[in-house]
Amino acid sequence: MATGLLNSSPDMNRNTASRSGFTLVEMVIVTAIIAIIAGMAVPLLVNAANSIKLGQASREVERELQSARLLAVQTNQPMRLAFNCPSPGQYRIVELIGTSSVPAGGDGAADRCAMTSYPYPADTDKNPLTRPNFDGPLRYLDPSVSFSVVTTIEFWPDGTAHTNTGGSNPWPVIGATGTTLTLTRSGKTKNITVNGLGKIQLQ
Length: 203
Hints:
There is one protein chain. This protein has 203 residues and is an alpha+beta fold. Helices cover 35% and strands 19% of the residues. It has helices spanning 2-20, 24-75, and strands spanning 79-83, 90-95, 139-140, 146-149, 153-155, 161-162, 179-185, 188-194, 200-202. A hairpin with a 2-residue loop joins strand 7 and strand 8. It is elongated. The chain starts with a helix and ends with a strand.
């Protein structure tokens, strides 16, 4: 009886081993299914990466707008956030050198955001009469993100926001509907809205 069991055991093991393997056809089918799934997943991953990078860049710009408004209130000086300044994809908080009614010529200069002309931190001259003293560092967008619709925003010490829509000084307060800044990456867009009261909203 024990001998019969011993003789049948190798056959059972061979049958089990043959059933547990994969045929070439099965391997080809599985490989094809994996390739199809991977082909579907890659575009979704790329799309997700685009959204993440665009969202991060938009949040950084929104925070810089908030910082410019807060700095204007704290320093009692009008502050601007300039975009694509001095080069595309760059932005910087700059202090208004003159006054809102009579800005200095340097406020509109092409190099107003340049670190060589207006270094950050400011030099050792802390005299409040010799401005600017409160310019911020130069910020950079992710190279894959760009500004598609932007305008310089000027914040006043009372917290209100202004843009140069009228072509005259002082800049008029932003209208009730607000002004929209748009960032773009790979066909996707993110908007930041700023209204006249200085409310900044990332959409």
